[in-house]
Design goal:
alpha/beta, seven-stranded mixed sheet, 6 helices, five-stranded parallel sheet, FAD/NAD(P)-binding domain, 2 domains, elongated, about 300 residues, about 25% helix
């Protein structure tokens, strides 16, 4: 049995690991992958880096955590159980026992839930511009969303000399610096007050049906690809009967990032903390706070 198991290999989980190791608390990180950060093409708002790819940044986090002694395991968590004086984490590969747990599982992309979306997933419909953007070089693509993620993806796809149709439900909600870049980009065509009601095609997707929100009209828009950036869903399904969640599926925490279960802490985008900013820097901050709370908890045992 070790002192702490951290579930999640994103900024929150890895920062928690770094701080726990500095407290000389034995810990291991269990992660399904590198998290959503790894899919971000360019990170420009994390201190210390004018610009860095999300994958490179999270690899630096991982290297630092391992440097200080953390064991990083890429396994999929299936169940958490409370024992008399510890916790058991069952994954698809093993069982792990620890005195404490930090939940930092991050989020996944929200889907449109429209006709044809699932049928053409991987056949034109994508949720990762970093993974798939290069396949659509010099083609016509759509990006759904108006937040920072959608704006960043539109700019990234434009760099491949694509004609990019940015499909916005109402108005932009992202940072002004990104909005200004999008407005100045000649490769980006902005469609506001529209929603995608259908994805159509044959063997591959060929386009989408747009519903205009302010007038009772639909139109077909021919596209080679569609990138969906309409929000995030917390990865909390396997803890819904273990800790308290709010109606959005976020883990309820106090200012010390304690959950409803003593000995279990949470950090990052899965929590109700940090005003739901969904930023790398706030996730990392919560990881540090959670580690401090773990240290205080173990000191009292």
């Amino acid at each position: 049995m070790i002192d702490c198991v951290i579930l999640g290999g994103g900024p929150a989980g890895l920062t928690a690991s770094i701080y726990l190791s500095r407290y000389n608390i034995q810990n291991k990180v269990i992660a399904k992958g590198f998290g959503m950060v790894s899919e971000t093409p360019d990170v420009e708002n994390y201190p210390g880096f004018k610009s860095i790819s999300g994958l490179e940044l999270i690899q630096k986090f991982t290297d630092q955590a391992q440097h200080f002694g953390a064991e990083v395991l890429y396994e999929e968590v299936e169940k958490i159980s409370k024992l008399e004086k510890s916790f058991k984490v069952k994954t698809n590969m093993a069982e792990h026992e620890a005195k404490t747990i930090v939940l930092a599982m991050g989020t996944h992309k929200r889907e449109l839930n429209v006709s044809g979306e699932k049928e053409f997933k991987g056949k034109g419909v994508s949720y990762c511009a970093t993974c798939d953007g290069a396949f659509f070089k010099e083609k016509s693509v759509g990006v759904v969303g108006g937040g920072n993620s959608a704006l960043t993806v539109a700019l990234t796809l434009s760099s491949f000399k694509n004609k990019v149709h940015l499909l916005v439900r109402s108005d932009f909600t992202g940072d002004k610096i990104l909005i200004d870049r999008v407005n100045k980009d000649e490769n980006i065509i902005i469609h506001k007050d529209v929603v995608v009601s259908e994805v159509y095609g044959e063997e591959m997707m060929q386009g989408v049906v747009l519903q205009h929100r302010k007038k009772d009209e639909t139109e077909k828009l021919e596209l080679d690809g569609l990138f969906v950036e309409v929000g995030l869903i917390p990865n909390t399904n396997f803890v819904k009967d273990f800790v308290e969640l709010n109606d959005m599926g976020l883990i309820v925490v106090n200012e010390a990032l304690r959950t409803s279960v003593p000995g279990v802490f949470a950090a990052g985008d899965v929590t109700t903390g940090s005003n739901n900013m969904w930023q790398i820097i706030t996730a990392a901050a919560e990881g540090a706070i959670a580690a401090n709370s773990v240290n205080e908890y173990l000191s009292r045992l």
